Structures
1.
Amino acid sequence: MFSAIRATPRLRSRPRARHAATAALLTAALLAAGCGTATKDPAPADLPQPPLTAAATSYPLTLDNCGKQLTFDKAPSRVLLTSGASVAEVESLITLGLQDKIIANSQSYGLSDEPGMAEKVAAVPTGGLTLNQNSAVPREQILAAKPDLVVSTWYGEFDDKIGSISRDALSTSGIQAFVDPANCTVGNPNATADEKARAQNQTVDASFDLLLTLGRIFDVQQRAVDYVKQQRDRIAAVQHRVDGKPRPNVLLVYPGMAAMNSNGLPAVFAGGIYDDVINRAGGRNPFSGKTSDELADINAEALASTPVDLVVIGRYQASEDAAKEADALFTKFPQWAASKNKKFVTLSDSPLIGPLNAIAVEKIADAIHPGN
């Protein structure tokens, strides 16, 4: 979701419909590439730079969020975070120094690619939240917490059919309901074809948009702008050093999210931000163009015929053994160049929507273009 999402026993207990929603959030795509050698693809254009300064927020602030107008008379001070499948929102608030505004958080992976981030997430109050069978925070718990802002990773979470609460019902209670802009189409039956296409073609700018929007809502715009500029500069530096070099095939998988598939294989992430992160690191994702349902049905034959020079093993729980997972893949698919060279890198939250994409770009670049 988007941030993103998981492979814990909790995910494995989710109904198939929730698995499909999770896969849709990740906008993962599947399509075997036809060539096993690295190619030279044009590097993406440098990221445009945000303004160096930002004006203070003038309240009341009205903004459009996933088709709803939200009006803030002041900065929220009692924030409740739903969607345990993501850490994008809680990490973004922490990055902006807003963790003291959170009264209840259901988001946690237990690890992070940013040193100290997992500990900061763990320190955020949970507010005693528990999730129902659809991994949603029940409406009774939301209302009892008396938040002034509820933040969700995906549009569909504000659906009372899965045991949560609608945005209209929250508004009636004087509570604003904010959806991560990256996932406005997920679980939205009225999403247009253009909106779906934009979601499928997301870049790291989707992560930055979340930060900048939160910056406006909480009146910390300068802090958000400064952080986004720093991240853009880090990514641009990587792009500069890998420009013109061969672009190896980089496979991004989350073995712990195997429950998203129909056959127990690792969940393959591709399309949108996942392709963009790999591309900016100087690689290419060998999978693209398929729907989330097609991704869930990926089979061993498709993986076996896919050229893979580097495997990125994604973890979202500290108990996952990345080296063991990589060895299992190398044994199952010995024809990969990555298998022959035992070449893999471990990441967690940084390839997903959230504030840490620069880390993923840097680490993938270091793995496929060492010494450059």
2.
Amino acid sequence: MWFKNLRIFRLSPEWDYTADTLEAALQEHAFQPGTSQDPLSLGWVAPREGEGLVHALNDQFLICLRSEKKLLPSTVINQVARAKARDMEAEQGYKPGRKQMSEIKEQVITELMPRAFSIARDTRIWIDTKNLWLVVDAASAATGDEVMGLLAKSLNPFPVLPLYTELSPGAAMTSWLIEDEAPTNFSIDQDTELRSTSESRAVVRYVRHSAEPEELRRHIESGKQCTRLALTWDDRISFVLTDGLELKRVAPLDVLKEQNEVLAGDEAELFNSDMTLMTAELTKLFDDLLNALGGEKKVV
């Protein structure tokens, strides 16, 4: 159940939701399958099937957003719309204008939507009520925005704040590469991305390849800044840090896998064991990462 792509936020110091009050708030927007004409349906579902909307364990909450989207490719819409436009042209003796084409497309979407395939995606959110973290397991910004949007509708006042650090991640990662030295408890791995700050936006990527420090310095001196850097924390977790303070491709290493495999139990016990291990380790990683980035910047 390890989160793979982390978007990290701060909980407001005024956070006072218990598992029960959070459950009640989320129930107002529990997932309901959309109608035949709904292109997108969003709602909260149980993180574990058969349980409530909030899985609570040792001051840690796990919740889950379900997004159900109808797949209606634009190529299909355009193909059917063109066929209807040809029929209309034959009837009225001239090609449909822009307004008519727009109306035809809207009609086509309405007709095809009930036959469109639906794809459901679940996005998990971890809430650390002790250390005031909120973490979304989402690779894309659009998915993160869906989570934030429904949280804002479900919780009043909205309890989530952006996370800022004294050093920007891009500047810090660039400095680590120049000095050829990772911060305390971290090591630099092989994947690196450098992007030009000029209008050209030129990009240099090293994938599973360690660049020589002198080569990296030349790129940096030419105006490039590090935007993605693969790191390992404490020989326990590997990840890629981005200049937007996101953690991608998060993976526990063998030492943690072996530690968890020692524990025996049924499915529920193993789920709780995974959750306990993940939240404890990531909390320590966040502390070290904030220290490496100069500490958290308080925004008034």
3.
Amino acid sequence: MPAFPHSTSPATPAVAIPPSLALPVIEAAFPRQLHPYWPRLQEKTRAWLLEKRLMTPDKVAEYADGLCYTDLMAGYYLGAPDDVLQAIADYSAWFFVWDDRHDRDIVHGRPAAWRQLKDLLHSALDAPGLYLHHRDPLVAGFADSVLRLYSFLGRRWNARFARHFHAVIDAYDREFRNRTNGTVPKVEEYLELRRLTFAHWIWTDLLEPSAGCELPNMVRKNSAFRRAALLSQEFAAWYNDLCSLPKEIAGDEVHNLGISLIRHEGLTLEEAIAEIRRRVDSAVIEFLAVEQEVCRFAASLDDGSVRGKETSRAVSACLDNMRNWFSSVYWFHHESGRYMVDNWDDRSTPPYVNNEAAGEK
């Protein structure tokens, strides 16, 4: 099987996007940017995946660059210090590998292995230093990335991140049970679950170390700021559903907005695709409106004090990166080998994964 194409210059994409997935407003109104650290980021994350044994050397060599995991983060967290971006990129790469392990544990009927992993991740999240040398590379890699993320802001941010990711782990467990039982969640239930499995609030939390500032509650809970953050994540989740629908139908998935619409709303495949597309478009349009409101809010925070200026600047930086998420997600889905299902020998088995669980062959 040929390797996925390696990324060369993701700031100037030259991919052909199918008309059904093309979003002219993203290409026109959300110019793509890339963190200048990206080439080094790609190199170091590739080395980290090898060091932590999260992918085998042959799969790292053949697929890691073409999966574009570092491109996704380098197009999102602009302005982040290099060490912050590196920690986020490694954590993001770990997240994709974890997602693949979760999928393989379901496909190969390994509920005990999944339960053990779930419990270990909960424990490592609360005490990552104790799990840096765990025998399961997925646990050790998680502990390493979390410990690094915990070093940037402080105890309150760390506690919030942990609380949010405990909820993500539990949501993955709900997905495991749904898929094992063949349960397709209803639309509203699915949307609630998706906000957790897509880790909406984790990626939003990470805007803060990227901006070098922990935001006060009054900022994070501001209705416009929170709405802008949610819309950027909803766009990403729904666009992912739109692009991954063929892969997930091939893999007997039950968690996709399109699958829920077909099963519970009686829509045809074509109608479900149109409805996901409508939600994607509406998220973009609404973000453009609320973005202006957040800009005014950020300006109002600058009261002339040092703290006011810092908070205003951080809110503006976070908003800029919410905007970057749209273009980064959009191009990622057309450049990453993760979605090139038609090129796989087996449409239900990604070529870049290992099928064994920890300790199994």
4.
Amino acid sequence: MDTETDSGTATGGWHLTHDLDDFLTRAGAFLRSRPALHTVPLTVTETLRTRGRCVYGDGAPEFGVLEREGEVRATFFRTPPHWLNLTALTPEDAGALAARLAALGRQLPGVNAECDTAAAFAEAWQRRTGATATLRQRQRLYRLGTLTAPGPVPPGGPRVAVEADREQLRHWHDEFSEAVGLGTVRDSAEWADARIDSGGIIFWETPDGTPAAMAGTSPQVAGQVRVAPVYTPPHLRGRGYAGAATTEVSRAALVAGAEEVLLFTDLSNPTSNGLYQRIGYRPVADFEVYDFASESDG
């Protein structure tokens, strides 16, 4: 069924749909009301709208909207085979959603949300399904304040990636996906094409013209862009290339009119968290990613 509406209070008033237009009609204003906290659903739905519904995988994306008294209170989306992504929920509403999805027989690999919401949903899912919930990663969302170039600036300079860089981008996208441990969420060749089309990747090049690092931004939606990915090959790290590339891509986003420039970091990496704060990024909120494993997975 493409669309399901649950109007009963026992299950939280969730409207479930596979129809992106239906979801955005219901939830678009809500997502845009807090563009920083909702950066992931805003950018993912924009990518689905512009690049096609199978851009993140072959499974049909699923969306949910929690509505009460004519107001949207929360949303979720999932692009199989990837994690469920939630906006902020009360523990009661997280439990209601877990009950609803479990009753429908949904198989979830995990959840990604602000800390309290992620923990509440993970606990409810574990209780409802018997799955084991394991904390995979703690993330911090940052917003750019005053942009400050970290010193000293490494030799070389910035350059926007073009069509001739397609294979380099594809290769580095695969390496980045493997390094962060979250799996390839998008075909690397398609991703490279999209970023080249939008001018959304900046290289930092050494003086001889060799790319040493890359930093990119998502398309601007609701006045916000998110910096991702930032990648330096292992043998070139520790020389300031990532900081220089991130500074340049952040500056480009501001010049293009972005009202908010955002990025996520892995809280287990003090180097990147320190770097982004030196550039001018300030904490907004913390998020957690949980993996779910059933007995059959073992």
